[in-house]
Amino acid sequence: MSVSGYASEYPDTPVNPGIQTFFETFYKTSDTPDAHDRYADSFTKDAVLIMASKKATGRSEILALRKGMWEHVASRQHTPVKVFPFGANADEVMLYGTVAYGLKSGKSNVVDWAARAHLVEEDATMKMDFYQVYLDTAEQSTSR
What we know:
By secondary structure, the chain is of the alpha+beta class. It is globular and about 45 Å long. It has helices at residues 17-30, 36-40, 59-69, 137-141; strands at 43-51, 54-57, 73-85, 92-103, 108-122, 125-135. Strands 2-1-6-5-4-3 form a 6-stranded mixed beta sheet. A hairpin with a 6-residue loop joins strand 3 and strand 4 (92-103).
């Protein structure tokens, strides 16, 4: 079942439905300001998260990075447009979409992003052990 507003297009390739559900839930969580622990729970305990030029390894660093992402942001809305699995039933994907920011300063902006993710099943739950987001930080800063 689709999490409203977070469904993406996928190619005509067999995809683990758990991956589709994972990303729909992940981006909804990402857009929820106080869901820091839930966001960190989307990663394995030793995961690597690279957000533009910032890198976090492990839960505590990912949690700190996540909290920092909300320092100047009042709201965000991800639109994950497409997900490209690396072959049939792959556990590695590329994604792209947009994110609309509403800043605490009152300004707003929409930024394109792309990402690479590797997923694993841990305790019958999909999680990422690697997630790298590519976005134009100069574009982000024009809205501050």
